[in-house]
Amino acid sequence: MASDESKTPISSKGSSAYLMSIVRTLSSSADFEHREQEKTRIEKAFRESDKRLGELVANDYQNVTKILQSFSKMTKSINDSREKIRKIKEDLSSCKTLLHFKRDELRKLWRDGVEHKAVLSMLEQIEQIKEVPDKMDNFIAKKHYLHATDLIVQAVAKLEGPLAGVDALRDLKVELISRKETLHEKLIEELNKQIYVRAVQTQSMQRSGSARLSRKDASVWGLTDGTSNNAVPSRGAPTDPNKSGVHSEVTEDLNQDPTENLTHFINILMESLFVLRKLPEAVEITKMRIEPELLSLVSKATQQIAESAGQQSDSLAGQSEPRHLLDLLQLIFQQFRCIAATHQLILNDVRRLTVSTSSMPLHADVVYDMKDVWSNIQAVLQVLLSEYLDVRNSLSSRQQAPSDFDEPTMDISMYFGKKRPGKPKKVTLFRFDASLHALSTNSYIEDTRQFDASDVGQQSLLTLISKQQKICKPSAFNITAIYKPLKAFIHDIEDAMESTAGLQEFITDFVQNAFLGQVHQRVSQSIDVATRGFDALRNVIDEKVRREMGVPRPLLQSTVTVDESIGELQELMLALPDYADQFLTMVCNVLREYRDKCHSAYRDIVQHGSDDRRVISAMWAKDEDISRFLRSLPSWHTLQPSADGKELDGTVCSEQEMRALNSKEAIILITNLSTDETLIPQQEIITDVTQMRTVANVHESLEWFASRLQQMADSLAEQSRPALAPDLPASELPLQVIGDFRDLAEVCLLLLHLEVRVHCFYYLLPVAKQSNYAGPIDDLDPDSNVLKLNKDLSSMEEVLSQSLQPKKFKYIFETLGYLVASIIISSVQFLKKINENGIKKMCRNILAIQQNLTNITMTREADLDRARQFYELLYLSPDDVLTSIAEKGPQFTGSEYDHLISLYHRSHPGHPIPVQEARMKRLREIMEKGQSETV
Q1: Among 314-318, 352-356, 379-383, which range has the highest average pLDDT?
Q2: Neighbouring C-beta atoms of residue 472, cutoff 10 Å
Q3: Where are the beta strands (DSSP E) in 211-315?
Q4: Residue 549: is its pLDDT beyond 50?
Q5: Confidence of residue 398 (pLDDT cuts 50, 70, 90)
Q6: Does residue 756 contact residue 652 with C-beta atoms inside 8 Å?
Q7: Pick from 94, 135, 671, 915: most CB atoms within 10 A?
Q8: Cα first-last separation, the chain
Q9: Residues 706, 742: contact at Cβ < 8 Å?
């Protein structure tokens, strides 16, 4: 309770009220005991309070003593202060009385003081004016132009104002006025230096073509995080130049280099010109110097690229190196972007300084905007590109080239067919749609002949750029190397101008009216040279080119030329994606025409003159059933690459299954070629082995070409995705044309496969049908047709081994021994008679063929041993043959044994017919019994 009372002591007014309430209680109470109790309670409380007070005083005795001492000192100080104040008042009253008596004398002294102060101020100003030249030189040397401008303006203002009557400053006044009048020239020169030298200095050696600035470059341009003191605005300068308000100013720090921040330094220069009241003149001069400075910049950039190339400019001008032009344009684009950004800073400052100031209006002819800057940049680039793209010569070649090169129905058969002298065509003298009007300013001058002021200026542009050194040979095809970065720069221009760029129209007209025509003419000429003449599809690439290309066998020169032309068109599609549709149309037309040329050449080989009759192998290769059967054989599947690009294993079926398939193929061929007594006409086979070489070359070339086209189609499909190249056409190469080339290549291989077998029939059928095998003993040499067949096979082997890959060569000659054996065995039915000498002669025929095929295939042809064993059965009697069949089982078919027994009876006419019929009956029983046992 005591603590609570100490924390909240009762005021004097509260204590009195409390005491009065006690008195009222005691006086109002009628009960004596109640009053005694109340008195006792109050006395007890008093004693407790007194006790508590004593304890508190005892505990805080020292504090109470200090408080009393401090209070005593404060009271004494207050009394002393009151005494001093009273004395001061008395002194002031006394001074006032004394000053009143000296008023006139004091007024005179005050006037003298004012005069002396004015004289001292004037002397100080004179001293400051005399130091102005030295200070100004120091400021200019350190490029503190704003301080120099403020100094000279203030000095001249003083000389023409308060110090106008000081004759001693006359010479200094003339000097300072003169320096003020010429200072703006220094500022304008410095401004142009910042625009065309300083602004591009940080980008001059970079070739990336990007408009981004590095951290160091961003610091130079003032694009920092705001912590630098170099570009701190002052005097309430708004950051947005488009905001209205009073004209704002900037300041410069004398302790820092003002050129470290390009943005702030330009603000300083423009502010200085504004202070000098020379802003209109500076803007006009800056506008007039845009074009010559850009030309000078192009000249310096050209020299820089030439020096970096490490060659003389004369040698560079004669080389077709568009990469140097690309480097030049990338460097120029970087510099032009920096220049445009600097001009934007200048225009922002002009708006900032004149937006609310009517004392310095700018004339409409003096003020320029960013469209003027970009227009001058486009004019310089247009004339520069006109020189390097050789616009004038490109246009003249365009007028001579066909105008429908990119039409889907374009007929370019004239470049593939045989050239025949024709009537001279009428040549169009000129075309309005290919005029020079829109190609370049110089061409426009030559067409219109209007020499106004602007034309003269553009003509001087062309003249100046024409006299500059060249870093590459002018050519329309230089556009392929520079199109993409040029398009990106044009996009930047259009974003800045918010309108279509004139440079874009120039490039579009050039590509459509000149470049595409030259591309078509170039491709047409190269294909024309490669496919001209009768032997166009017989000319193959040399060994050196083949090794460089990495192809296993020689290819047709025409195919390689067409592939190179299509590859060039594909590169153009990637280089000029906006015109990919036109290039793709050209590719499709070239492919269709070359496909027709190849089919025509193929028909010339397999077709006889104007007749529809073709060689047998060609008809079979086109026959759906035979072609489907041959393509189903395992030997054909081994030629096809697998999904992972590896060759398939040749052992895709067992030897027994392979023999069954070979037997089926042989049966089909024998059934179609040796079922009657007639022989195969010579005109139904290919007798010229060089034509087979041509067919082989066509096969290898078209197979390689089809794979190349498929790669190109896959590449275009991949690159036409929007994320990669949205400008490329979404359509791929026509897969039907690629399939046509692949089908013709397969038909050529099937033709060779069948033609070799037809040649076997052509030479072996007369062996049985026309030769004598019942002659004298001295006629034991191989048949002449067998020797011709061996010679023919050797010639084909020599030709095809050089023209076909080993696996395809193997496909053509493998299983040939089985077919020859089948032909010889089946030919037994055509033999009229045979004796032992004839059997020996037939065996020698078989041996000669076997040795030749062994030399060709490098494997022993065991199937011909089977044919020899078949004819050696003629040494035995029919009964012995039947007994051998019954004991050992049949080695040949029933029809073959039937023909064998029939030949034996024809060769031995003494046997009666019933005996032959009995033997035939026994043969059928033995064969049926063998088949039932097998089952």
Answers
A1: 379-383
A2: 23
A3: 233-234, 249-250
A4: yes
A5: low
A6: no
A7: 135
A8: 131
A9: yes
Cβ-based neighbours of 614, under 8 Å, separated by 6 or more: 606, 607, 608
- Give the tens place of pLDDT for each residue, 57-68: 888 888 888 888
How far is it, in rounded angstroms, from Cα 661 to Cα 37? Answer: 144
Cα separation, 44 vs 212, whole angstroms:
95
Sign of the four-CA dihedral 544, 550, 553, 557: negative
Residues of the chain above pLDDT 70, percent? 77
3-state secondary structure of 556: strand
For residue 572 the two structure tokens come to 């153009």
Q: Which amino acid is at 40?
A: T
Q: What is the dihedral of CA 36, 39, 41, 47, to 10 degrees?
A: -140
Q: Is 820 helix (H, G, I), strand (E, B) or coil?
A: helix
Q: Using CA atoms, how far apart are residues 744 and 812, in angstroms rounded to an integer? A: 17
Give the pLDDT confidence score for residue 749 in this predicted structure.
Answer: 93
Q: Phi/psi of residue 85, each to 5°? A: -65, -40
Provide the pLDDT for residue 679.
83
d(CA 163, CA 436): 68
* R_g of the chain, CA atoms, integer Å: 57
| Among 570, 574, 446, 576, CA closest to 508 | 576
Predicted pLDDT at 461: 54
Maximum average pLDDT range among 228-232, 408-412, 895-899: 895-899
CA 646 from chain centre, in angstroms, equals: 32
β-pairing verdict for 249-250 and 233-234: antiparallel
Lowest mean pLDDT among 104-108, 665-669, 856-860, 863-867: 104-108
User: How far apart, in whole angstroms, are the C-alpha atoms of residue 741 and residue 703?
Assistant: 7
Query: Bridge-partner residues for 614, per DSSP?
Result: 607
DSSP for residue 783: P
Buried b (16+ CB within 10 A) or exposed e, 538-566: bbbbeeeebeeeebebbbbbbbbbbbebb
Contact 569, 586 (CB under 8 A): yes
Residue 684 is given by DSSP the state G
The long-range contacts involving 415-418, CB below 8 angstroms and separated by at least 24 positions, are 415/524, 415/527, 415/528, 415/531, 415/593, 416/527, 416/528, 416/531, 416/593, 416/594, 416/596, 416/597, 417/597, 418/533, 418/534
pLDDT of residue 851 exceeding 90 = yes
Q: What share of the chain is helix, strand, coil (3-state, %, to 5)?
A: 70, 0, 25
Maximal CA-CA distance, the chain: 192
> What tens digit of pLDDT does each residue of 108-154 get?
888 888 888 877 877 777 777 788 888 888 988 888 888 888 888 88
Encode burial over 739-749: b for 16+ CB neighbours within 10 A, e otherwise.
ebbbebbbbbb
Q: Quick one: tokens of 492?
A: 């930047």
Given this model, what pLDDT does residue 931 score?
63
Alpha carbon distance 142, 145 (integer Å): 8
Contacting residues for 295 by C-beta, under 8 A, at least 6 apart: 380, 461, 464, 465
- The 3-state DSSP class for residue 534 equals coil
- Phi, psi angles (nearest 5°) of residue 675: -90, -15
Those residues with Cβ within 8 angstroms of residue 847's Cβ, 6 or more apart along the chain or in another chain: 864, 868
Cα–Cα distances (Å) from 60 to 7, 65, 72, 440, 763, in that order, read 15, 9, 18, 108, 148
